[in-house]
Amino acid sequence: MNFQVTVLKVLVSYPDGFAVMADLKRDMAILATSGRDWAERTKRLAARVPDLDIFSQGLIERMNGGWRVTDKGRSVLATMEARSAPAQATELTPVRTVEEPTPSPMPSIAPVRRKRDRKRRQRDTVRRRQASAS
Biased-composition ranges for Basic residues (predicted)? Predict the structure, then answer.
């Protein structure tokens, strides 16, 4: 997972582009554990801007216990996500006539929460068994 691209993507997902550190860390942890798709996607985006440095380039700013994406950061992210014209032409050829739903830009966190909750319940059960056995 590319840290800098993920920070930009997370901050852009907030309405005003600002997130306190606790929210930013939580969202990044969710994405980091969401699987290979996210890691591969951020690598592809980062490859389009190899000298990316969100701090020194002024793409984000630190303020009030959090980070906010700047207009420059939004435009750099848009540039990274923009596809070249030939690639679009090949992708626009219709394969099916049924309209498919567009994938959401951020993966759902529900599966991660369910997995985390299941593991927590399993740990609690083991601890209760160990406590009652002693």
Answer: 112-134
CB 50 within 8 A of CB 132: no
Beta bridge partners, 67, equal 19, 62
Q: How many CB atoms lie within 10 A of CB 73?
A: 22
Structure tokens at 112: 């991660």
**What are the CA-CA distances from residue 72 to residues 18, 33, 55 (Å)?**
14, 28, 12
DSSP 13-53: HSTTSEEEHHHHHHHHHHHHTS-HHHHHHHHHHHHHSTT--
What pTM, to 2 d.p., does this model score? 0.59
Domains, the chain, ranges and CATH? 3-84 (1.10.10.10)
Strands 60-63, 18-20: pairing kind: unpaired
Query: Which amino acid is present at 85?
Result: A
pLDDT per position as a tens digit, 72-95? 989 988 888 886 444 444 444 444
